[in-house]
Structure formats: C-alpha cells, structure tokens
C-alpha cells in the first residue's frame, strides 16, 4: 500500500465509506493513495527522493474525483484512469461514490461517437436510488464554476 504512514484510518471507515486506497485496489489491482500516471519522485536536494507510485497501466474501469471540500488536498487523477478501456467510471465526490457509464463499448474508440452520447449515473447515496441519464454534447462550449454547477457536472468536467 505504498508508504502510508500518514494514513491512520482503516480501509473501511466507521461511517461506512471506503478509503480511496481501497478504491484504487479494486480498480487497478494495486493499493496506492496516488492516482497519477507512473512514478513521481518527491524530495529536496537535502533529503532522499521518495518514489510515489501511481497507476502504472491503463485501467479497464476509470476513476473520476471531484472534491468540493476545502479541507482536503486536491486529487490529481492521471489519464490512465480518466480514459479507461471501457466507458465506465467509478466517481467520487468528497466521500460519496457512484458509477457513470455508457453501454456502448465502442464509445471511447470512435472519435465521432464522442460528440453526443448519454451517460448513466448511479449513486451510493441513500436518497438517490434511481438512475440519472445525462446527455453529453462536446460540440457546445460550457463554463464550469465549481460551486454553482451540480456535482455530477463537475465530475464529468474532470474528465
């Protein structure tokens, strides 16, 4: 699980939420707190450089993260999770998880199919038990204001 000395929590938290490290284990087969591509070395000239191993290969199922909470560090998700081989993404907004997908397996392989398509969203939230269908039209420019747009739209914009 990498060097997680700063993580003192269990993988399943007392409130029932799963820790992001467990989500990365489920999605990539490797438990790591880092979602960036490859290995990044962090350190100064005075200290030894420490590797932070992220996602080493393109995932079949993607992961998108949107955090509105000011108290948490920003999460850098690499392209290997943003562009999976299947059009399925596990999405996390603060501590809530959901699934965003399109049943057309060829969606990410055809440039023209990415112009206009539907995404289906299911949330782990107790008050959200129905699917949400979102039509994406990439031909239209849109603005993104993190605090005034819906959470689902912010999640999609992270892609």
Automatic annotation (TrEMBL):
<dbReference type="GO" id="GO:0006508">
    <property type="term" value="P:proteolysis"/>
</dbReference>
<dbReference type="GO" id="GO:0071108">
    <property type="term" value="P:protein K48-linked deubiquitination"/>
</dbReference>
<dbReference type="GO" id="GO:1990380">
    <property type="term" value="F:K48-linked deubiquitinase activity"/>
</dbReference>
<dbReference type="InterPro" id="IPR025257">
    <property type="entry name" value="MINDY-3/4_CD"/>
</dbReference>
<dbReference type="InterPro" id="IPR039785">
    <property type="entry name" value="MINY3/4"/>
</dbReference>
<keyword id="KW-0788">Thiol protease</keyword>
<dbReference type="Pfam" id="PF13898">
    <property type="entry name" value="MINDY-3_4_CD"/>
</dbReference>
<feature type="domain" description="Deubiquitinating enzyme MINDY-3/4 conserved">
    <location>
        <begin position="2"/>
        <end position="158"/>
    </location>
</feature>
<comment type="function">
    <text>Hydrolase that can remove 'Lys-48'-linked conjugated ubiquitin from proteins.</text>
</comment>
<dbReference type="GO" id="GO:0004843">
    <property type="term" value="F:cysteine-type deubiquitinase activity"/>
</dbReference>
<keyword id="KW-0833">Ubl conjugation pathway</keyword>
<comment type="similarity">
    <text>Belongs to the MINDY deubiquitinase family. FAM188 subfamily.</text>
</comment>
<keyword id="KW-0645">Protease</keyword>
<protein>
    <recommendedName>
        <fullName>Ubiquitin carboxyl-terminal hydrolase MINDY</fullName>
        <ecNumber>3.4.19.12</ecNumber>
    </recommendedName>
</protein>
<keyword id="KW-0378">Hydrolase</keyword>
């Amino acid at each position: 699980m990498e060097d997680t000395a700063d993580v003192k929590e269990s993988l399943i938290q007392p409130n029932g939420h799963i820790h992001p490290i467990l989500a990365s284990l489920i999605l990539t087969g490797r438990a790591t707190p880092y979602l960036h591509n490859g290995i990044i070395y962090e350190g100064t000239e005075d200290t030894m450089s420490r590797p932070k191993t992220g996602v080493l290969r393109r995932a079949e199922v993607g992961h998108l993260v949107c955090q509105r909470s000011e108290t948490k560090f920003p999460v850098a998700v690499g392209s290997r999770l943003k562009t999976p081989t299947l059009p399925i993404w596990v999405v996390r907004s603060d501590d809530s998880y959901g699934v965003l997908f399109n049943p057309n397996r060829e969606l990410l392989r055809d440039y023209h199919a990415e112009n206009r398509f539907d995404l289906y969203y299911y949330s782990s939230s107790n008050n959200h038990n129905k699917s949400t269908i979102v039509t994406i039209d990439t031909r239209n420019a849109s603005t993104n204001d993190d605090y005034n747009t819906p959470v689902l739209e912010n999640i999609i914009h992270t892609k």
